[in-house]
Design brief:
With about 260 residues, this protein is mainly α. Helix content is about 75%, strand content about 0%. The N and C termini lie far apart (about 50 Å).
Length: about 260
């Protein structure tokens, strides 16, 4: 005999999708576990920035100019590189192959929307970047880094990193959501190598001609590395030009990714 509570439908599952916040949280947790299990992705996001920081700070491979030590120049640039490696290169490649193997097609059949997927991947990136930041700062301090920053850096550094993360995440998802996986792999690695050389990470932008330097400072890596260096090495507050550049890249990248991202 069916009880009155069952007959009344008390135990009937509620129809409809879960709240967006819950869907984003669940997808972000899955993305984080997948990333941390991938040895190649961990090498790109964790090992390479630490190796570059150690190698270029311990050996006089590059002349950074007078008035700044090697470790003071390199640490903000390596932080910018870590953001790029996680938010752009790693995310673009992983998403591109998820799209190729039909993972994104299956996600597209769920209530998770394009903005929801972008939000989940951005949350994952931020979690990994927190781990990167801890490792980079610990190594930099061990190598003699002593930042010259104002108290405002407690707010401005996370703000700059979040803007850089949003910019790189939008560009990564735009790339992965419009190109084939193999093309995404090639393009993401090419951009990584190029911006490593011309993004102000390990080579000062002052080494480039004035016209080229003005352009390179407006690229996401150049803007982020220059802004972080101004805040952490020169006691700057919030570099206006670089902050605006990152904001424009973030808004444009996320908007284009949300508009043109294809699930398959």
């Amino acid at each position: 005999m069916i009880s009155e509570s069952v007959a009344a439908g008390r135990f009937t599952p509620a129809p409809g999708a879960a709240p967006l916040r819950r869907m984003v949280t669940a997808q972000a947790a899955l993305e984080t576990r997948t990333l941390l299990r991938n040895g190649e992705q961990l090498t790109l996001t964790l090992v390479i920035p630490l190796l570059l920081l150690a190698a270029f700070s311990l050996e006089p491979l590059v002349n950074f100019g007078a008035g700044i030590t090697r470790i003071d120049f390199l640490t903000p640039g390596v932080i910018a590189l870590a953001v790029m490696s996680t938010a752009f290169t790693s995310q673009a490649i992983a998403t591109g192959f998820e799209r190729r193997y039909g993972v994104l097609k299956r996600l597209g059949a769920t209530p998770l929307s394009r903005p929801g997927l972008i939000a989940a991947k951005t949350v994952t990136v931020v979690a990994v970047e927190l781990l990167q930041a801890v490792l980079i700062v610990v190594l930099a301090v061990a190598l003699g880094w002593s930042p010259d920053a104002s108290p405002a850096a407690i707010v401005t550094v996370p703000l700059l990193v979040l803007l850089g993360t949003a910019a790189f995440s939008g560009l990564a998802l735009l790339l992965a959501g419009t190109l084939r996986a193999e093309a995404t792999l090639a393009a993401a690695n090419l951009v990584y190598v190029v911006l490593l050389g011309v993004g102000g990470v390990v080579f000062p932008l002052t080494k480039f001609p004035a016209g080229a330097r003005s352009f390179l400072e407006l690229l996401p890596t150049g803007a982020l590395s220059t802004a972080l260096r101004d805040v952490l090495a020169n006691a700057g507050v919030l570099p206006a030009k670089e902050t605006v550049a990152l904001l424009v890249w973030a808004v444009a990248g996320i908007a284009l990714a949300a508009r043109y991202f294809r699930w398959e």
